[in-house]
Q: What sequence folds into this?
């Protein structure tokens, strides 16, 4: 008996000292390059482009156009996004190809005569779309950094659109989820239903009109989308259906190079997206606050660790609602928000034992006057050029409008504006003046394509979908590696949680947290709400010991990482 007891104690000691299951989780690895995206077809095409001598931007262009065909719930040419590019000599560039409000858009466009929000007007149908930016963005990235010819990079997407691809169980589910909405729009019904019936696993999805549109983009570049036949078809359909986007709006669209948002976390360089994304700013606020203590020593996903994170998130999202918007239109106090002094002040406002109520936590820069399907891919090539790209239609399948004759599925990104002060958007986010609708303005985003450096070498590429939860997912993956010593697979797969100030509760992954951790958090005063999944991370990490790239895609959805 005594021996048995000793034996058990030794086993427990061994198990707690060596995380056996964690050690078995191996990411994919290779010394040349890696691609991690939400779709196996797109990942394979990206890797082929690298093997053919293309660089990371070439692969990103091919992956971006392929996802528009094979991952239509978020991959797109009718939406927009952000890209961080790192060149082989360690220079970083941030490309903003976010949608913008059409010229005829105005502040109260989604309100009725009594100033009440007209239900679904900013999420479903023609009026929900901003002017798309994806084609301009991918073209501009290629113009500046691409190596292989543009037409070669579009060819795989064209062939898949023309000949079709087989729907798997995951895609059957995601198409099924929006089926009722597809029936509302004839061109959408024609593409995403089988003569009005649901698609099933094993069916072939063919997109002939989309193939023709992609051929025009292949042959004419941005003119194949923003002028000529494609632009005419978009403007015509908009005019007939109460939408706002005109040929002039399309002709006026430009992707913009921005100054990347850079800060340090525990000696690592973090490079992320500045406004009109809130991603980099909120990421910096959260990590800067946590830097004031040793997060690793609290233990991964302990209640003490989660409590500190949540209180840091609460403040950062309160600031998001108040201060953040398109910096071309409003003044965003970037330097103040990412300062270490501000983070220290926020850290010392946290009670280590008790949750604050969000109604008592306000935007914190006192000197300032009052006033969900996306997708990410990460790519690195053998010269260390890298791309971290997040783009979106906003909701799953965007506005559910396919423009007749083009196969283009349009975004419902206008919902990312604050359509009425204090009114929650589809992610429960509220906003104020800084993110009010104005003609030509870009709506505030949470997309957080990010890279990390160590000693001026590329260390990590990371990003995720998830609307408002994108930023906290990216932050946790970063911290899992930096603070908790996880490899990229462990960091990506580890259970996630999220708090965004309002609504005032912690969302947590249903199967990821022990009951006693949840009970401890309740005892501290936190409200909790379980959810199936948070984020869908696709990331690449340098393994310095083996001198190779490691990569992993979140297994919760349909993603796949490959390296060679
Ligand atoms: N549409 C989600 C975002 O940009 O945050």
A:
């Amino acid at each position: 008996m005594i021996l048995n007891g000793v034996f058990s104690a030794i086993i427990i000691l061994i198990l707690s000292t060596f995380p056996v299951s964690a050690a078995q989780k191996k990411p994919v690895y290779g010394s040349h390059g890696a691609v991690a995206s939400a779709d196996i077809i797109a990942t394979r095409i990206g890797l082929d482009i690298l093997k053919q001598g293309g660089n990371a931007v070439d692969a990103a262009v091919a992956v971006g156009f392929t996802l528009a065909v094979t991952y239509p719930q978020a991959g797109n040419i009718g939406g927009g996004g952000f890209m961080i590019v790192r060149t082989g000599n360690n220079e970083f560039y941030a490309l903003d190809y976010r949608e913008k409000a059409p010229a005829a858009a105005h502040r109260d466009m989604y309100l009725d005569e009594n100033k009440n929000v007209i239900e679904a007007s900013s999420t479903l149908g023609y009026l929900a779309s901003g002017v798309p930016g994806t084609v301009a963005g991918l073209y501009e990235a290629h113009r500046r950094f691409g190596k292989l010819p543009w037409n070669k990079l579009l060819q795989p997407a064209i062939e898949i659109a023309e000949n079709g691809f087989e729907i798997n169980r995951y895609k059957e589910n995601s198409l099924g989820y929006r089926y009722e909405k597809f029936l509302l729009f004839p061109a959408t019904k024609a593409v995403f239903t089988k003569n009005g019936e649901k698609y099933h696993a094993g069916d072939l999805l063919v997109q002939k009109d989309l193939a023709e549109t992609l051929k025009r983009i292949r042959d004419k570049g941005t003119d194949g989308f923003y002028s000529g036949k494609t632009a005419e078809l978009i403007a015509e359909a908009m005019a007939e259906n109460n939408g706002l986007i005109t040929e002039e709006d399309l002709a006026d669209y430009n992707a913009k190079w921005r100054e990347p948002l850079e800060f340090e976390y525990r000696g690592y360089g973090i490079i992320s997206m500045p406004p009109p994304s809130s991603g980099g700013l909120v990421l910096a606020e959260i990590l800067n606050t946590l830097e004031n203590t040793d997060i690793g020593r609290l233990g991964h996903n302990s209640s003490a660790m989660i409590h500190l994170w949540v209180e840091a998130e609460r403040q950062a999202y309160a600031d998001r609602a108040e201060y953040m918007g398109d910096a071309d239109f409003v003044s965003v106090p970037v330097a103040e928000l990412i300062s270490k002094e501000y983070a220290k002040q926020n850290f010392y406002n946290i009670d280590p034992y008790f949750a604050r109520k969000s109604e008592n936590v306000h935007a914190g820069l006192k000197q300032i006057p009052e006033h969900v399907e996306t997708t990410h891919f990460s790519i690195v090539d053998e010269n260390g050029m890298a791309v971290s790209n997040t783009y979106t239609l906003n909701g799953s399948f965007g506005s559910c409008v396919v423009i007749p004759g083009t196969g283009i599925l349009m975004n419902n990104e206008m919902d990312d504006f604050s359509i009425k002060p204090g009114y929650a958007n589809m992610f429960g986010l509220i906003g104020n003046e800084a993110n009010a609708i104005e003609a030509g303005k870009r709506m505030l985003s949470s997309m957080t394509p990010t890279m990390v450096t160590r000693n001026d070498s590329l260390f990590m590429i990371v990003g995720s979908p998830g609307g408002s939860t994108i930023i906290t997912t990216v932050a946790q993956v970063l911290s899992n590696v930096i603070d908790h010593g996880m490899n990229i697979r462990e960091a990506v797969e580890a259970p996630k949680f999220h708090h965004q100030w309002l609504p005032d509760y912690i969302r947590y992954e249903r199967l990821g947290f022990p009951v006693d951790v949840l009970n401890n958090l309740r005892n501290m005063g936190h409200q909790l709400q379980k959810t199936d999944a948070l984020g869908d991370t696709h990331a690449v990490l340098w393994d310095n010991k083996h001198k190779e790239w490691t990569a992993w895609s979140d297994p919760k959805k349909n993603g796949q990482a490959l390296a060679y």
In short: The mean pLDDT is 94. Residues 31-164+206-564 form a domain with the Glutamine Phosphoribosylpyrophosphate, subunit 1, domain 1 fold (CATH 3.60.20.40). The two ends are 53 Å apart (CA to CA). The first strand starts at residue 28 and ends at 30.
